[in-house]
Amino acid sequence: MASQYQIFNQTAKSPEDMLVTTIIQAASNTMGGGIQWSIDAHGAGKNSRGGLDQSCRPILDGFAKLFKPIAESVKNTRPSNSYPPPFSGAVVKLSGLSWGVATQSSDGNKEFLHILKAPSGNTLTLPPPADGKVFTNARLLNGGLAVSLSQSNRGVTLMLPDGLLWQKPDTVIVMDVLAPGGVGLVNNTSRAVNYLGSSWSYQRNAKTREFRNDSHRATADGDSFSFTFNGTDVAWISSLGEDRGVVELVIDGVSQGTVDLSKGSGNFQTVFSKSGLPRGTHTLTGTKRGGALMTVDAFKVSELINDSELAFQDSTRFGPTAAELPGPWEPRGGSWINGHGFTFRFHGTAVEILGGSAHGSGDLVLTLNGQPHSTVHCHGGQTTRSLAKISGLPYQPHTLTGHYENRHPAGFIPALDGFTVTRPDFWSHRKDRGLGEINDDSHVSELKGSTSSHTFTGSGVEIITTKDVESRTAHYTLDGAGSSLWVGLNHYSPVTEVGCAVFRYPNLVPGRYTVGFQNAANPSGINFSFVRLNIDALRVYKGESSSASPLFWGSDGHGESGAWDAGVASNWHDGASPVKWQDFGAEDQMAVFAGNGGRIDVVTSIRVNRLVFRSDHYVLRGQPLELTGEKPTIHVADKVKAVLALPVRLPGGALLAADSYTAASHPDLITGSGTLIVENSH
């Protein structure tokens, strides 16, 4: 999806503007394409040959000078899968960036960080890569000077050499990819994976190119792993080689046969996959049955949701301009204001009028199908933008007229946000279509404006449609994690094509999102008389961020007393080295307290999904703990008593009452055989 900009008169007011716009486009054109700059020119006439507007020459020359040293980070690149940018509608805005954007080389072996908003010091801290990549060998693209790089499960830290300043308008840091990323991946260190047997060992090796650069290995027959997941499709990622063994696989107690890992070679290999499981929770178990070695690298999980399992809406929203707006109406944000009245024609069984007052107060007098209906008072103190709802209408065309009266003497400026129309035929469920669609069915819309959405928790999403000769334009939205994306796509095809993943964003920061789709085709005109949209299914990827991997209290992981802060002291251990407790908004963070107990002073409010107390005598005091994400839990091991002498907030905002908690008394919150004492709930 290429972009076109006009030099000088529109976007590029300077070489710096032109460079920043080009970089942002390279990092956000996820549908493919590039950017084309249209340069002002003087047209030929009389004795003139025309040519470049000379006032644009300094901008173009300045851009070329800035672009040349960093061209590798833009030309022949793709948007980064590790650091997807935050969208605002169809674009990414510089004002919406916290640090910048990222691109990746076409072969995926290099990551380019474009620091468009430099930090105040010489250190830049980024969240964990969304796709789980591991980086090495960071350096400035312009000049090649080395940049200090430190990566843990909680993020990436880059530090410029002393005395070196961030380059304006764009400092480009290039990093080599040490270990690959992927879509919907769960690492071997996840709490969803359990290992049984005495021969298991954890391996961290910079030369293996395994996912996140680590793996678990077992050498004894009978040792096993079990992976519990929620989805319909699962894959096991391992390594192949002559020294690998035979593994027996079982899903939910049903044998899946054996896999011989000695057949073939290489790491980061998909050695087993299963699709078509019922939606819900499942357990994959692998038991070593021969050979020298069994390796667990990662798992890939997704959930395929058929259209019959989605909730399709029987209502849709129309903007103010869907009505006739006589008088001095003018746009203001998402509303139109300062008019005298409107006429809205619709076909349906119900309608809702949205709006209010931009200033003062007055009455909105409503007439339906030529008959007086009701009067609504509009004023600035309204708590809702819903002015009126009219339901129970016969399914037929209607005309709704609104007229503003009794304006406040000090002035009344009405505001109209739009209308919501309900009709039963926005979507139809069509079965036994015989086209090869998933479950041989589809939800079909043949009305412009038909809308629906689905809220999910995951790390990626794709919408699967059927394209055909009657399909035209569809609009897609994706909201969550500080981003709000809008994309318009054309689904026309001269032949019927099934299984088309038309809207696909597989590498999101794991979290809660809402994906929406709308039939946006134009039903008028010879070439645009069809408005069909076929929704076949939706796939949600269920990968975990590395932030889900546990951090162990203490710089060596062995506990003791200390202070728990966010992003200051390296008083945690990730299994390899001391790290800071970084919080970039993830809702799956896990804290483990083992070794020697002690007093933990919580000096800043901390967000965490799971607390694990493996050792006795831990007491946490200070600022609140906020339990986040889905199903937060506190695990207290056998014969362990943990004390939380501080406020503990549940995801809904409620405080955990001062009390004694066990798995028996509070099974939805507590696991393990120990006891949790909450002493302070204020």
Q: Can you walk through the features of this model?
A:
The chain is globular and about 80 Å long. The longest helix has 14 residues, at 15-28. The protein has 2 helices and 60 strands. The protein folds into 5 domains: 3-179, Immunoglobulin-like (Sandwich); 185-307, Sandwich (Jelly Rolls), CATH 2.60.120.260; 315-422, Sandwich (Jelly Rolls), CATH 2.60.120; 426-541, Galactose-binding domain-like (Jelly Rolls); 550-678, no CATH class. Helices cover 4% and strands 48% of the residues. It has 682 residues and is mostly beta strands.
Gist?
With 682 residues, this protein is mainly beta.
Number of helices: 2
Task: Please tell me the overall pLDDT.
Answer: 91
What is the percentage of strand-forming residues?
over 45%
**Name of the CATH first level of the largest domain:** Mainly Beta
The helical percent reads under 10%
Q: Rg, please?
A: 29 Å
Counting copies of identical and different chains, the oligomeric state is single chain
Give the overall shape, derived from the CA principal axes.
globular
Low-confidence stretches: none
CATH architecture of the largest domain: Sandwich
Content-based structural category: mainly beta
Summary tags:
Immunoglobulin-like, 4% helix, 5 domains, seven-stranded mixed β-sheet, mainly beta, 2 helices, 682 residues, Jelly Rolls, nine-stranded antiparallel β-sheet
SSE layout and pairings?
Elements: E1 3-6, H1 15-28, E2 35-38, E3 41-42, E4 51-52, H2 57-67, E5 77-79, E6 88-89, E7 100-105, E8 110-115, E9 123-126, E10 134-140, E11 148-152, E12 155-159, E13 171-179, E14 185-187, E15 193-196, E16 201-204, E17 214-218, E18 224-230, E19 233-240, E20 246-251, E21 254-260, E22 266-274, E23 281-290, E24 294-296, E25 298-306, E26 315-318, E27 330-332, E28 335-337, E29 341-348, E30 350-359, E31 361-368, E32 371-379, E33 386-390, E34 396-405, E35 413-422, E36 428-431, E37 441-445, E38 451-458, E39 460-467, E40 473-480, E41 483-490, E42 497-505, E43 511-519, E44 533-541, E45 551-553, E46 562-564, E47 572-573, E48 578-579, E49 590-593, E50 599-602, E51 606-608, E52 610-613, E53 618-622, E54 625-627, E55 633-636, E56 641-645, E57 648-649, E58 659-661, E59 670-671, E60 675-678
Parallel strand pairs: 1-2, 6-41, 45-49, 46-50, 49-52, 50-53, 51-54, 52-55, 53-56, 54-57, 55-59, 56-60
Antiparallel strand pairs: 3-4, 5-7, 7-8, 8-13, 9-12, 10-13, 11-12, 14-25, 15-18, 16-17, 17-24, 18-23, 19-22, 19-25, 20-21, 20-23, 25-44, 26-35, 27-28, 28-35, 29-34, 30-33, 30-35, 31-32, 31-34, 36-37, 37-44, 38-43, 39-42, 39-44, 40-41, 40-43, 45-47, 47-48, 58-60
